[in-house]
Specification:
Layout: E1 13-18, H1 22-33, E2 37-43, H2 47-57, E3 60-61, H3 65-69, E4 76-79, H4 86-95, E5 99-103, H5 110-123, E6 127-130, H6 137-145, E7 152-162, H7 174-177, H8 180-183, H9 186-195, E8 198-211, E9 214-226, E10 231-239, E11 246-253, E12 256-260, E13 264-269, E14 272-277, H10 284-298, H11 306-325, E15 329-330
Parallel strand pairs: 1-2, 1-4, 2-3, 4-5, 5-6, 7-10
Antiparallel strand pairs: 7-11, 8-9, 8-15, 9-10, 11-12, 12-13, 13-14
C-alpha cells in the first residue's frame, strides 16, 4: 500500500502502543533507540501492567485504547494486544488518521480485516500486518534451498508446544485467541508465501475445555490442496495433553527432501545429506519495526502487503468452517 511520506529524521514519528506484553516491550525498546521515532504513550488491559510499562519506558499512560487513538499528537499506532481486538483497534486508529502496525492476525474474521484495509486505502495510511516468520532464518533457508528438490508434492509442518500446567492466559481462551489457525496464522502463512493459492481445505480439531471459554489443550490438523497440486498438512497443538515438543517443517520434492527445525535444516537426496544453517530468530520484531520507520520516512518497500495476510486469513477462516462442518471447503480466489 502506497502512502505519501511526510516524515523526516528531523521530525520523529510519534508513536502510541496498545498492549504491554512481550512484543510491545520489544517494539518499545527499538523505538527508544531510534532517533526517527518518539514513543509517547501506552494503553494496556490492566492498570498495574500499564503503569509498569509507562515507568519502564518513561512514557504517558492512556486510560484506554480508544482514548489513545483519538490523540492528536500521534502519527503511528502499534497494536500488540489480544487477537480479538486487533481489527476494531486498527479500524478506529485508521479512521482517526493514524498509520497502523498490527500483529497478526489483522482480525479474527476476514470480512473485518477487509474493512480495515479499505479504510487504510481511503485514508492513504499505512496498515502493516506483522509476519516476522517471513523475515526469519528458517523461512529464508527454505526459500534458498527449495529449488534443489525440484517439483514439490507434499509438505508437512508440525508445531507441538507442551505446557504443564497450561497457563490461564488469553492464548488459551477461545474468544480472545480465536480459532487456533487464525491465532497462529504464521503456520499457514509460511505455506501461502511459498506455494501460492489454495484450492480447498479440510480440518479436524479437538479441545480439552476446562470451562466454556478456556481450554487446557488443543489439537488442530489442517489439510490444504494448492491449485498447483501440492498437498500440505499443518498440525498445531499446545497445552497439558502433550509431553514432548516438536517443531518440524518437511518438504518432499521429486529431487529430494528438506527437513527444518527452528535451529537447523537438512537437504536429503538419496544417500547424500547436506546440513543447512538456519539464521537466528533474535531481533525480528526490532527488524520489523525499523522497516516500518524506513517505509514511512524513506519509502523503502516493506516485506509484504496486507492483502497477502488477508488471503491467509481467508484460508484460516475456511479451515474453521471445515472443522465445524466436517466438509471440504473450496476457496475462491
Amino acid at each position: 500500500m502506497n502512502t505519501t511520506s511526510r516524515f523526516s529524521a528531523s521530525s520523529p514519528i510519534r508513536v502510541g502502543i496498545v498492549g504491554t506484553g512481550f512484543t510491545a516491550k520489544l517494539r518499545a525498546q527499538t523505538l527508544g533507540t531510534d532517533e526517527r521515532s518518539h514513543l509517547i504513550t501506552v494503553a494496556g488491559h490492566r492498570p498495574e501492567s500499564t503503569e509498569a510499562f509507562s515507568e519502564e519506558f518513561q512514557i504517558e499512560q492512556s486510560v484506554s485504547w480508544r482514548k489513545l487513538i483519538e490523540r492528536d499528537d500521534l502519527d503511528l499506532v502499534i497494536v500488540c494486544t489480544v487477537n480479538r481486538d486487533h481489527g476494531a483497534i486498527a479500524r478506529a486508529a485508521l479512521e482517526n488518521g493514524k498509520h497502523v502496525v498490527v500483529e497478526y492476525p489483522l482480525a479474527l474474521d476476514a470480512s473485518e480485516a477487509e474493512g480495515a484495509i479499505a479504510i487504510a486505502q481511503q485514508q492513504q495510511k499505512l496498515l502493516h500486518v506483522e509476519h516476522i516468520e517471513l523475515l526469519g532464518g528458517l523461512h529464508q533457508a527454505v526459500k534458498e534451498y527449495l529449488p534443489a528438490i525440484g517439483r514439490v508434492s507434499y509438505v508437512r509442518y508440525v508445531t507441538i508446544n507442551p505446557q504443564h500446567p497450561a497457563p490461564r492466559k488469553w492464548t488459551y481462551q477461545h474468544s480472545l485467541f480465536g480459532f487456533p489457525f487464525v491465532g497462529a496464522l504464521s503456520r499457514l502463512h509460511r505455506f501461502t508465501d511459498l506455494f501460492g493459492e489454495v484450492g480447498s481445505v479440510t480440518c479436524q480439531t479437538q479441545f480439552w475445555d476446562t470451562e466454556p471459554d478456556f481450554y487446557k489443550s488443543c489439537l488442530c490438523s489442517a489439510q490444504l490442496r494448492f491449485t498447483n497440486g501440492i498437498i500440505a498438512e499443518s498440525v498445531y497443538g499446545k497445552g497439558e495433553t502433550w509431553w514432548q515438543s516438536e517443531n518440524t517443517f518437511t518438504i518432499y520434492g521429486e529431487a529430494g527432501k528438506l527437513i527444518f527445525t527452528p535451529e537447523s535444516g537438512q537437504l536429503i537426496q538419496g544417500e547424500n545429506t547436506q546440513n543447512i544453517e538456519v539464521g537466528t530468530r533474535r531481533g525480528l520484531f526490532a527488524k520489523d519495526t525499523i522497516m516500518v520507520l524506513d517505509y514511512l520516512i524513506e519509502g523503502t518497500p516493506l516485506y509484504l502487503n496486507s492483502a497477502a495476510s488477508l488471503y491467509t486469513l481467508k484460508v484460516a477462516n475456511s479451515l474453521k468452517k471445515a472443522a465445524e462442518t466436517g466438509e471440504s471447503i473450496a476457496i475462491s480466489n
